[in-house]
Amino acid sequence: MESVAEGLWGLADVQESRGEIGKAVKCLEAICQCSTSFLPIIDIKTRLRIATLLLNHTHNVNQAKFHLERAQLLLKSIPSCFDLKCRAYTLLSQCYHLVGAIPQQKNILNKALDLATHGDDELSATLWSCNFTSQLANALIIEGEYHNAISALDHGYASATHICSPELQMFFISSTLHVHLMQWEDVSVVASAVNRCSQVWESIEPDKVNSHIPHL
């Protein structure tokens, strides 16, 4: 049955390359709807692929959410598959964000952050943690929880510092500045955030700085 799944995955690739997203989804859904059960890992990968296609090319968020929630149930019975679990979390977070279910999004992201602390590959786990942290901060901002958002961004900044990524540091510190500008409680706090942004920006290598500046 694995060869059947691989054949349908390949056919879905062809349809996607032609811009036939609906046909690509149908190829993949044929695996999920097959009367003969595939291995759980095949079902999981297929559902993640379907959700990705739906989120990237359609407005069918609810169908994407259905496949992701089903994939999550299957993943609970598998002790490994760290990256697949993280992908499911980040895509499901995106679904909750799109439908305005912010409390559910925050809940799923907190679970994702807990998972990220158990990754075997430190770099991969930290990058996933940064991903989840940025989404959580955004969700907190939407609900007006500015102080909690800043705490989340500070955590992300610390993670970026740990893996020596000035680009990620810049992302988190500039996001923190944005939150301070939104709530504007203290001019000195805003000025401090601006100074931190300047310090991080100056620490980025010149060739990388140029790559981040748009050509006008």
TrEMBL record:
<keyword id="KW-0498">Mitosis</keyword>
<dbReference type="InterPro" id="IPR019440">
    <property type="entry name" value="MAU2"/>
</dbReference>
<dbReference type="GO" id="GO:0005634">
    <property type="term" value="C:nucleus"/>
</dbReference>
<dbReference type="GO" id="GO:0007059">
    <property type="term" value="P:chromosome segregation"/>
</dbReference>
<comment type="similarity">
    <text>Belongs to the SCC4/mau-2 family.</text>
</comment>
<dbReference type="GO" id="GO:0051301">
    <property type="term" value="P:cell division"/>
</dbReference>
<dbReference type="GO" id="GO:0007064">
    <property type="term" value="P:mitotic sister chromatid cohesion"/>
</dbReference>
<keyword id="KW-0539">Nucleus</keyword>
<keyword id="KW-0159">Chromosome partition</keyword>
<dbReference type="Pfam" id="PF10345">
    <property type="entry name" value="Cohesin_load"/>
</dbReference>
<dbReference type="InterPro" id="IPR011990">
    <property type="entry name" value="TPR-like_helical_dom_sf"/>
</dbReference>
<keyword id="KW-0132">Cell division</keyword>
<protein>
    <submittedName>
        <fullName>Uncharacterized protein</fullName>
    </submittedName>
</protein>
<keyword id="KW-0131">Cell cycle</keyword>
